[in-house]
Amino acid sequence: MTLHIGVLCGGRSAEREVSLRSGEAVYRALLAAGYTCVTKIDVGIDLVEQLKKNKIELAFLALHGKYGEDGTIQGLLEMLDIPYTGSGVLASALAINKIATKKIFMMEGIPTPRFTVVNRREVYTNGLDQAAVRVFKEVGIPAVVKANTQGSTIGISFVHQQDKMSSAIQNALEYDHDVLIEEFIAGMEVTASVLGNEEAVALPLIEITSAKGVYDYEAKYTPGLSDHIIPPRLPEATQGYIKELAVKAYRAIGCRGLARVDFIVRQRDAFALEINTLPGMTATSLFPDAAKHAGIEFPELVRRIVELARQS
Fold first, then answer.
1. Cα torsion at 265, 269, 274, 278 (round to 10°)?
2. Least C-beta-crowded within 10 Å: which of 26, 85, 261, 289?
3. Is the torsion defined by CA of 64, 199, 287, 263 positive or negative?
4. Of 31, 65, 84, 215, whose CA–CA distance to 149 is shortest?
5. Tally of CB atoms within 10 A around 292
6. Where does residue 77 rank: exposed (0-12), middle (13-18), buried (19+ CB within 10 A)?
7. Residue bearing the bigger pLDDT, 89 or 154
8. Is residue 86 within 8 Å of residue 258, measured between CB atoms?
9. Is the pLDDT of residue 217 over 60?
10. 10-58, pLDDT tens digit by residue?
11. Among the listed residues 242, 239, 234, 236, the one whose alpha carbon sits nearest the alpha carbon of residue 271
């Protein structure tokens, strides 16, 4: 296959190292799938020149976080008339914004944990401690504090004591102007990988367990610190319900190609947390694992993702 594919990875976000690993894995899988013209590009300020010099005909996005998963690179590629994998500009921008995503979940009737928001303006005007008091009244303890537009659990804190809320908010504000504070729901972490365009389908669900007790950045990307249980230890009816919710969320945001929807499951109640429009493609990543259990090996998976991009 002579289609010249550029694997875009690296970039400027806090997830650069993970992106480089995803890019390398995708590059090798594309070659194994039979694509003979594949170029790996570490995304920098010379990206346009790199795309033109290498005569890239399709971009396989292996970027994560800001300047890759947030609609910016998608907009650039649209202007250059280069097709690309994954969701478009609007869906990418919405999905990376956890607050906007949760508001859409609420509008669409997709269950999601209670939440509130703190931004830098509020902290500047009223003070950090006053913001923390408001959060405690509205959400309570325990709570999860998240930087609004970061991925890979960067800037996340689990708060179990009221006097720790201020420092957790301060930590998240170092990564973002807005902070999402969410009710902590104790339960099973489950992720649903969704593949497709108009006829999107949910792949086998994965239950995630962590040796650390929380599925943070270290647990995600260190072999041996987390386990993927496929299928999850849930009734088949509950699994079917979660898959339906995942596809509903995928369509509500307007995703295409692929995405991963994360849930917390308490007994038979499932709560959608967020959507990742460019899920990781490393050796420990969830999306390739789900595909494998659906009978789709990694080279075939990247081939399907390329074909979905060409249909867009």
1. 70
2. 289
3. positive
4. 65
5. 16
6. buried
7. 89
8. yes
9. no
10. 998 888 999 999 999 999 999 999 999 999 999 999 999 999 999 999 9
11. 242
- Give the model's pLDDT for residue 213: 57
- Tens of pLDDT, residues 112-124: 999 999 999 999 9
Q: Stretch 222-237: mean pLDDT, rounded?
A: 85
The number of beta carbons lying within 10 Å of the beta carbon of residue 54 is 14
Tokens read off for 15: 């997830």
Query: Which residues face 279 on adjacent strands?
Result: none
What is the phi-psi region of residue 242: left when phi exceeds 0, alpha when psi lies from -120 to 50, beta otherwise?
A: alpha
Positions marked catalytic: 15, 152, 221, 260, 262, 274, 276, 280
Residue 13: its pLDDT value, please? 86
pTM of the model: 0.92
Q: What is the 3-state secondary structure (H, E, C) of the chain?
A: CCCCEEEEECCCCCCHHHHHHHHHHHHHHHHHCCCCCEEEEECCCCHHHHHHHCCCCEEEECCCCCCCCCCHHHHHHHHHCCCECCCCHHHHHHHHCHHHHHHHHHHHCCCCCCEEEEEHHHHHHHCHHHHHHHHHHHCCCCEEEEECCCCCCCCCEEECCHHHHHHHHHHHHCCCCEEEEEECCCCEEEEEEEEECCCCEECCCEEEEECCCCCCHHHHHCCCCEEEECCCCCCHHHHHHHHHHHHHHHHHHCCCEEEEEEEEEECCEEEEEEEECCCCCCCCCHHHHHHHHCCCCHHHHHHHHHHHHHHC
As a whole number of angstroms, the distance between CA 116 and CA 270 comes to: 20
In total, the chain counts a number of residues equal to 312
